[in-house]
């Protein structure tokens, strides 16, 4: 490894160390959760490596033990990770580098990798392309390793962990409350709660979620489109 690559790796390691601590906790929880659902450690390890989308992996874990609806799963996965469409547009210029690294970085662009690669001011002595590659690679490794660790650790637990599946519900509640505190108005939050509640009553728990997310996305698309047209006409 030459000096430029070494400097890029060291700088990427420094920038991703805080992410590693968070991934260890959530990944181990995910691995233990998968074990409690009846899967050995290979499942969370391979899912972490191939899917590499934390919140979606928790959802997929619960879907694997129920009746499989391919279209619902596809729509759910698409909507949950639709934010990556906006990430990718923001990274078009930064990821415009030659070689195979670009394709791996596109595959591995999670929330944390996007945040670090988009906001970090890379020193002149550090190769920018290799820095972004190592950020993606390290974050990927943290998540796969912690998920595998959780799967292995879950097999050593011999006491009752009923209720661990609530961890995903708790995670989304925390994210929702955090958004509620930070936002200037609560239109988006109230819209989400209202639409989801109505469709839950009408459609039941098996189908309400993907349709709720589609309808919410459509509502805000129309809302933002009207705002843009109003701005252009003024």
Structure explained in plain terms:
The protein is mostly helical. It has two domains: 3-162, no CATH class; 183-234, no CATH class. The protein has eleven helices and no strands. The protein has helices at 3-36, 42-50, 54-63, 70-80, 83-90, 101-107, 111-119, 128-154, 166-182, 187-203, 208-233. Helix 4 packs across helix 11 and helix 10 runs antiparallel to helix 11. The longest helix has 34 residues, at 3-36. It is globular, with a radius of gyration of 20 Å. The protein starts with a helix and ends with a helix. The mean pLDDT is 82. It is found in: Cell membrane. Pfam families: AzlC. This is Branched-chain amino acid transporter. It comes from Liquorilactobacillus aquaticus DSM 21051. The chain crosses the membrane at residues 12-35, 41-64, 71-92, 131-154, 161-181, 193-222.
Structural class call reads mainly alpha
Largest sheet: none
Assembly context of the chains: single chain
Number of strands: 0
The percent range for helix content is over 70%
Number of domains: 2
Coarse morphology = globular
Taken in chain order, the helices and strands follow as HHHHHHHHHHH
Could you list the spans in which at least 5 consecutive residues all have pLDDT below 50? none
Rounded mean pLDDT score: 82
C-alpha end-to-end distance:
57 Å
Radius of gyration: 20 Å
In what range is the share of β-strand residues?
under 5%
Number of helices: 11
């Amino acid at each position: 490894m030459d000096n430029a690559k070494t400097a890029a790796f060291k700088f990427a390691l420094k920038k991703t160390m805080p992410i590693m601590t968070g991934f260890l906790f959530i990944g181990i929880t995910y691995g233990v959760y998968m074990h409690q659902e009846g899967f050995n450690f290979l499942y969370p390890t391979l899912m972490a490596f191939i899917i590499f989308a934390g919140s979606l992996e928790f959802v997929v874990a619960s879907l694997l033990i129920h009746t499989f609806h391919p279209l619902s799963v596809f729509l759910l996965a698409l909507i949950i990770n639709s934010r990556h469409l906006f990430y990718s547009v923001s990274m078009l210029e930064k990821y415009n580098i030659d070689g195979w690294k670009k394709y791996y970085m596109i595959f591995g662009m999670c929330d944390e990798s996007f945040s670090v690669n988009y906001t970090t001011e890379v020193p002149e002595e550090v190769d920018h392309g290799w820095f972004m590659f190592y950020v993606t690679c390290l974050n990927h490794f943290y998540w796969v390793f912690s998920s595998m660790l959780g799967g292995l650790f879950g097999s050593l637990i011999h006491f009752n962990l009923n209720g661990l599946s609530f961890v995903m519900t708790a995670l989304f509640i925390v994210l929702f409350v955090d958004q509620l505190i930070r936002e200037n108005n609560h239109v988006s939050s109230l819209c989400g709660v209202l639409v989801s509640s109505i469709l839950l009553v009408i459609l039941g728990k098996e189908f309400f979620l993907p349709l709720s997310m589609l309808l919410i996305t459509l509502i805000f698309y129309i809302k933002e489109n009207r705002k843009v047209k109003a701005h252009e006409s003024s």
